[in-house]
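User: Now give one protein:

AI:
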Amino acid sequence: MLANPQTRPLSVTFWDVGQANCSTISLPNGNLVIIDTGNRGSPLIDWLAERRQTIEAVVITHNDSDHVGSLPALIDAYHYRIKKAYLLIHQSDYAEKGKKLFRRLKQAEEQGLEVNRLESGQIIWEDSGLQAALKVVHPSMLENFHASNPNRTSGILCLEVAGQMQVIWPGDAPLSTLQKHCTGTNPEYLVGPHHGAPEDYRSKTGHAAIKAVTPSKDYISVSTRNRYNHPRPKFIRRLEMEDCKVVCSQMTIHCDRRQVLQKQRPLMQSHAILGLRPPRNRGITCRGPLRLDWDGSKFVEDQLAAEHLARISQLKRAQCLKGRNREWL
């Protein structure tokens, strides 16, 4: 039987789950926070089978299947290990597929799972020693109720450590909503939003939002074979021109179709190196998953960061380098 994880520094992992979203936060006491689960068949589910960690909370930022698809499997297999779950309530959730999920949640609640509505003002986790907290900044109850579409009520989570904003998960929220709640936060990492294609990325408002929030780095979770034309090259260039470095989990048609996509060769073998399972979608790995470890004063990227930069620098059409400050290369 596997031993319980030892006490460790705080760490954050952005998973490669194809055209979907999933992150985990490993807490100092060994427990986990899960932010989105990915689609059905997410590698997260099998990975958890190899561990005995308590799941402090499962937080769903958006109720589309790419965020919530593996939640039923997670609940079926590990509900006894989950302390709390946080979900949005939106009118689209009451479609038939939504009813099935909520029946599962109801059954788990009867067996001890605490189920909460995701709302601004909540603190999902905090640690006074680290001066750390994972907070919900959007939506409020009324913003959730009045949203004209599900993207606009997407949850926005902020991880602050030692008085500095470290990571923001905006789900599928528009950039204008991100700006409203996160102006001046200057996070080390932004995730997406919306797989590198937020709905207002073309607009002046969207560009202003990037300037206002000023992330240092952006992790985009995307599938090689996605049919949505994600991520959008213009959004990536706008980020890079504001000195925000971009990495994508998988290669797409926007990057070196001839060199990489036709050869079907991953740029990195990062899943195995980080001890994670790859997604089932057979995409072409670019950065793959990415792990951040707290060293006492800042988050440090895993040992693959330098090698990944060296490899993408050899590509002829790497979109994430088109607007990048050349001093970083």
